[in-house]
């Protein structure tokens, strides 16, 4: 996407001369000593290879050719062990952050519509130790309410710190966490809750008053509703026998429980951690059964693609935690000592819909280094940037466009532009807090033009990846120094990918110049199957002669010579929930 400019030719020559002088004086030494040379070399390296020379052979990352990675830390083969390891290592470090609400008010628009506006304060933080204690108490409190190991419990809630605390409690006590999107319709929610036969729902006061209140009579097994906020409330509309608790009261029960009641059955790697319901884009939503070892393998592969991940990183969480991408991203951060500050699409930026004019959005306050986004959010960011550009003077606007096109040319060659970054794009970068170093894009395919726009204006890697709920979100992710567009990267170190002939469409793994076919993902991240749907499970999942489990994605791809995958065909009525995203080892420990 090259921007057009209308600038005086003499001025254009002068600006080009300044850029040339700057390059000679500063860029060449910077190029030699900064590592840019090595990054360019890495971008040209082969990233994945087939395991043998036979047609249709599986491709693996060059970092896991002989052994697929499956655990983050030796001995941490379940999610409760991963969190306990992180708690021990990062005990007093900040983990989960929430902004305090200073003021709420109604703003009447000229049309007569009333919009809710908020003024938010600083982030308040819970340490790793704080979160661990709250999760232990909550899990014990659920046991007091009658929750048994290996039974289902639902969470129907917006993304927030309490969501993660509740999830960790369930992982510790081996409760199977049923996740449902807060945006699902009533019929889909009822289907998921009744199919999993839950007796307890964890939710927010707002969702209880809006969605649950209308459908609670259709969930006959329901006995407990736990709100993560607010005071205990009863509703005359609720059926008799349904009790409403607060999360704080359940935690208080757990803290007071005797030592015997605290001895919960711990999970084993093959136990189900999450039953994740998809959005139901092709009919009623299906519950994907994801085990502890599935999730751990997935986040092992994801984290390997994020260089220098650690205590200095801050992740902003605002996408639905009921989506495998957001859940995986937050678990990656939690296991590496990162901070997670919570937000929402309505309070994300200074221009977001619920932020009162003149107040600061969450990214401005938090200044995250890691962020995930979906195309819809990126479109809003693009619109905000271009509105700012259009408000510039003619000279400023043409200078921005010139710098944009110059940087686009340099990026395509693998180079960076420190002068443009510091002088031209600094203010644009501040729209996301100014410190983003990796931007992960998920939820849908990302166009090359949008990817390049974000690369240029926010001065950070923006790549793509490919995964599904059925593969625990893991499949491929581009490396941070790979600035090509239109591809989804090489297989992660936790899995292998092969292409199966699809004769009806004319795609064969013997095609030239690139092998093509239906994408199959194999590895420990491939999930158990669909809840109470053995027929569909048998159709979409197979096990080969070596005992490797494979997911038939229904998508068509091709492998390029460097081992990177490109999606070239729409999925074949698979009905799966695709997670395409952008920018973690026992089995084979790569630590």
Tell me what the structure shows.
- By secondary structure, the chain is α/β, with parallel strands linked by helices.
- It has 3 domains: 9-43 and 346-458, no CATH class; 50-72 and 463-579, Roll (Luciferase, domain 3); 79-267 and 320-334, ANL, N-terminal domain (Rossmann fold).
- Helix content is 34%, strand content 22%.
- It is built from 17 helices and 25 strands.
- The strands form 5 sheets. Strands 9-8-7-5-6-10-11-21 form an 8-stranded mixed sheet. It has a 6-stranded mixed sheet with strand order 4-3-13-12-14-15. Strands 19, 20, 22, 23 and 24 form a 5-stranded antiparallel sheet that branches.
- A hairpin with a 5-residue loop joins strand 22 (541-543) and strand 23 (549-559).
- The longest helix has 26 residues, at 9-34.
- The model is unreliable at 580-591 (pLDDT under 50).
- One of its GO terms (cellular component) is lipid droplet.
pLDDT < 50 stretches: 580-591
CATH class of the largest domain: Alpha Beta
Going by CATH, the architecture of the largest domain would be 3-Layer(aba) Sandwich
Radius of gyration: 25 Å
Helix content estimate = 25-40%
CATH topology descriptor of the largest domain: Rossmann fold
Largest sheet: 8 strands, mixed
β-strand number = 25
CATH superfamily of the largest domain: ANL, N-terminal domain
Q: Number of folding domains?
A: 3
Question: How many angstroms does the end-to-end distance come to?
Answer: 40 Å
Structural class: alpha/beta
Q: Mean pLDDT, nearest integer?
A: 87
Morphology: globular
Count of individual helical segments: 17
Q: In which order are the strands of the major sheet placed?
A: 9-8-7-5-6-10-11-21
Strand content: 15-25%
């Amino acid at each position: 996407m090259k921007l057009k400019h209308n600038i005086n030719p003499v001025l254009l020559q002068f600006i080009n001369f300044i850029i040339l002088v700057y390059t000679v004086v500063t860029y060449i030494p910077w190029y030699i000593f900064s590592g840019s040379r090595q990054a360019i070399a890495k971008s040209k390296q082969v990233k994945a290879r087939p395991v043998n020379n036979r047609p249709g052979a599986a491709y693996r990352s060059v970092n896991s050719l002989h052994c697929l990675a499956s655990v983050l830390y030796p001995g941490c083969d379940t999610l409760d062990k991963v969190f306990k390891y992180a708690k021990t290592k990062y005990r007093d470090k900040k983990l989960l952050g929430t902004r305090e609400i200073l003021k709420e008010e109604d703003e009447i628009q000229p049309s007569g519509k009333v919009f809710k506006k908020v003024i938010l304060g600083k982030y308040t933080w819970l340490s790793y130790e704080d979160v661990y204690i709250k999760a232990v108490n909550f899990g014990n409190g659920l046991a007091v309410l009658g929750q048994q190991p290996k039974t289902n419990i639902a969470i129907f809630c917006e993304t927030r710190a309490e969501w993660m605390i509740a999830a960790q409690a369930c992982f510790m006590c081996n409760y199977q966490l049923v996740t449902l999107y807060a945006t699902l319709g009533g019929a889909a929610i009822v289907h998921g809750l009744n199919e999993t036969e839950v007796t307890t729902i964890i939710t927010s006061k707002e969702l209880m008053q809006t969605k649950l209140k209308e459908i609670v009579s259709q969930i006959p097994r329901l006995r407990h509703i736990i709100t993560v906020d607010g005071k205990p409330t009863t509703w005359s509309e609720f059926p008799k026998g349904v009790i409403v608790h607060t999360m704080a009261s359940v935690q208080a029960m757990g803290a007071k429980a005797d030592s015997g009641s605290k001895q919960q059955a711990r999970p084993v790697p093959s136990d189900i951690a999450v039953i994740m319901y998809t959005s139901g884009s092709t009919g009623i939503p299906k519950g994907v059964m994801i085990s502890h070892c599935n999730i751990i393998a997935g986040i092992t592969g994801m984290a390997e693609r994020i260089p220098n991940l650690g205590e200095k990183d801050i992740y902003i969480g605002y996408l639905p935690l009921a989506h495998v991408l957001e859940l995986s991203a937050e678990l990656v951060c939690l296991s590496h000592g990162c901070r997670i500050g919570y937000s929402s699409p309505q309070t994300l930026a200074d221009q977001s819909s619920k932020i009162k004019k003149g107040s600061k959005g969450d990214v401005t306050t938090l200044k995250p280094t890691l962020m995930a986004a979906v195309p819809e959010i990126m479109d809003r960011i693009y619109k905000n940037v271009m509105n700012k550009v259009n408000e510039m003077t003619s000279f400023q606007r043409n200078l921005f466009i010139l710098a944009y096109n110059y940087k686009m040319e340099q990026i395509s060659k693998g180079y960076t532009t420190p002068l443009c970054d510091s002088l031209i794009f600094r203010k644009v970068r501040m729209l996301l807090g100014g410190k983003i170093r990796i931007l992960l894009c998920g939820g849908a395919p990302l166009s090359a033009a949008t990817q390049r726009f974000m690369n240029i204006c926010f001065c950070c890697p923006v790549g793509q990846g490919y995964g599904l709920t059925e593969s625990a979100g893991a499949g491929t992710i581009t490396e941070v120094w790979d600035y090509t567009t239109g591809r989804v990267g090489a297989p992660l170190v936790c899995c292998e990918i092969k292409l199966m002939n699809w004769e009806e469409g004319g795609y064969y793994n013997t095609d030239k110049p690139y092998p093509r076919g239906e994408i199959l993902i194999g590895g420990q991240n491939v999930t158990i199957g669909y809840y109470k749907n053995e027929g569909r499970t048998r159709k979409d999942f197979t096990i080969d002669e070596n005992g490797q489990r494979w997911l038939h994605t229904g998508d068509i791809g091709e492998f390029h010579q460097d081992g990177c995958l490109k999606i070239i065909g729409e999925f074949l009525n698979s009905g799966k929930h695709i997670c395409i995203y952008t920018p973690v080892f026992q089995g084979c420990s790569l630590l």
